[in-house]
Amino acid sequence: MTLELGSLVAASVAYLLVLFLVAYAAERGAIPARITQHPLVYALALGVYATSWSYFGSVGYAARHGFRYLGIYLGVTLACLLIPVLWRPLLRLSRELQLTSLADVLAFRYPGQSTGTAVTLFLLAGSLPYLALQVRAVVESARVLSPSASPTLVGLGFCAVLTVFSVLFGARHLTPRERHEGLMLAIAFESAVKLVALVAVGIWAVSNVFGGVDGLLAWVDAHPEAIDALQRPARDASWSPLLVLSCAAAFLTPRSYHVAFTEAPEREGLATATWAFPLLLLVMNLVVPVVLWSGEALGLPWPADFHVLAVPASRGATWLALGAFLGGVSAASAMVIVTTLALAPMCLTHLVLPLGYARGQPNLYGWLLWARRLLIGIIILAGYGFHWLLNIRGTGLVDLGLVSFVAVAQFIPGVLGLLFWKRATRAGLLTGLVAGASLWFLTLVVPLWASPGVVAWTHRMAALLGFSDSEPWGFATFASLTLNGLAFIGVSLATRQSAEEAEAARACTREEAAPAAGGVVAGSPDEFRRKLAPLLGEEAATAEVDRALKSLSLPQDERRPSELRRLRDGVERNLSGLLGPVLARMTVEEALRLEPGARTALAEQLRFVEERLRDARGLQGPVPALEAVRRYLRRILEDLPVGVCAVGPDGEVVIWNATLEQLSGVPVDTVRGHPLEALPAPGARCCPVSPAVWTETRRRVSPWRASSASSGCTARGSLPRSRARARPRGWPSWWRTSRHERPWTRAWRIRTGWPRWGAWPRAWPMRLATR
Fold first, then answer.
1. Measured by CB atoms within 10 angstroms of the end CB, which terminus of the chain is less buried, N or C?
2. Which of 396, 422, 455 corresponds to the end of one domain?
3. Regarding predicted confidence, which is higher, 537 or 434?
4. Which pLDDT band, with edges at 50, 70 and 90, does 590 fall under?
5. What's the CATH code of the domain at 683?
6. Integer Rg of the chain from CA
7. DSSP characters for 242-273?
8. CB-based contacts of 553, cutoff 8 Å, min separation 6
């Protein structure tokens, strides 16, 4: 049975148009949010991992390597089991810091433009074989159904159509910080299509090739060599390289990372993905032996990679063959579209923008949008060029895909260091990455076009280490990751970590590394806009400041130093999603510098800790118990029946509890973040202690008196002689009074420093409650 090439093209274009309409309807709100934001949509979208190499190539891989094809599924299951350990921290960083790619995350943890550039270049190089695989799968599958089809025409047409749809799906508007609900729904729809198509082929094969389940079992009993061919490779070869590669690819390839983290829903989707994503792949893999045996029973002349098409086509099932072809187009197009939408912003951020072309553009958003569209076309064209230049016709689909998987695996040491090793340095990451990438290129990429002598050399090297000579990627995985990891650890230990790297490491490992305090040189949102305009353009500067004000619920006339620091941090986070973390930090530091000598403020520490506590609710173990204690103590501090106020290092009010608010009549929102000297009466009189009291240290005097020039009030108190020493600035103070006295005539008794157990109110561990 053959089909006309025009019919295949028309069906493919019609299918892609349906996908676009699904995405468009979701973006316009025609599809309810309860559907577009459902966790199952997120889990199905993660099925973009299963590309044409899983759809077509798993059958061919099973024919050559038996049940080891299940390693691709088992590795993903292992990755899903590690969601609480690996995925959640990466999702937290991506959301908090507006990091939209793996290159952004690594450039944040290992600060430097060189990090983003190196990671982007290697991800781009590692993705080209995978893009070429998709082109080859579509070309070869078209030739199975239409033998007269021109490979060049089919390949170029497929790439041209995907370029148009990639722009329509993800580059019609510049929304790097927003979730593309339409894109996610379309990708989930594609996952459902390829699942239904593959299962339909399997069910049809059981019914029409074997005559039912009984016929299938009878054929297997009559051909024990078919079972042995699946079991023997699984017994004789190692599973570990395939498990490591598929586990890493489940969330580190550009497309998987984009769907898993950049497009993650606001609602909890990872819990559903833990079981739904592996279940999707399990159902797809269960069909593979049936399709393989069907092709062997029919004696098909086509390679096993394309038995999914050839089995129904050989029996004249035209509509099923066409549906199976569309399932393959769905798998390939989803990979290409999402990969280019992930790589184009990455290349723009880390390769193009550092050259300075966008600096001072009057219409920054428009320039970035057109640059992204151009990069989408270049990346897809590069994938086709890789397919055309290399002699890959003799390479199986899965074997070619594993070349890309080994490339992605080189980021495992860097990601583990990001999450668990604070001592890791940028020099270690770059050295390890260069070492691993070089070995990957020599052992896997060069043999794709090298002479038979070079290929034989790589096979001999693999055999020396106990790997099968037919699987050079196993040797490449072991050798490249070993060299990468050793270089990463060795150079990190041998080099000195910069202060910027240490601060980023604390943020990535969930320690309380608060942003710097100090006054911002810009004293109002209007001044923010004026200082950012020369770098971003007036339109972009205004839009970014307004977006930060809205997200932080701050007024346009905000003047409080602490809130201006929050605004500065918000602008930097927004720009990070637009320009990347390195350029965003450079832009903010140039335009919105902090005053010299800035230190970490207690207010920022408290706010930072509270954000971490909210994020820790999904964790398990002793961490949430400790955080619950800290939240409880903070709540005690706020609810104490005594007036409590804390002042930061710049003299700004940090804590103003409910009792003090009741006594003074001054709302907490109008006090927090203001210097004591600037508080309106009666607030200034309520806290008559000058910031100089905080530095009243080594004089072993008791009692002492402190007066406030602004209020004319005098505070009486005592410091125990054994404790009259220097105290860190920003610690809370206690004001106790008799409720029989009137608020502004009573005498205040002040206690500072560490509390002492057994003497109320010193019995509260203040450091634990506030740090």
1. N
2. 396
3. 434
4. confident
5. 3.30.450
6. 31
7. HHHHHHHHHHHSHHHHIIIIIT--SS--HHHH
8. none
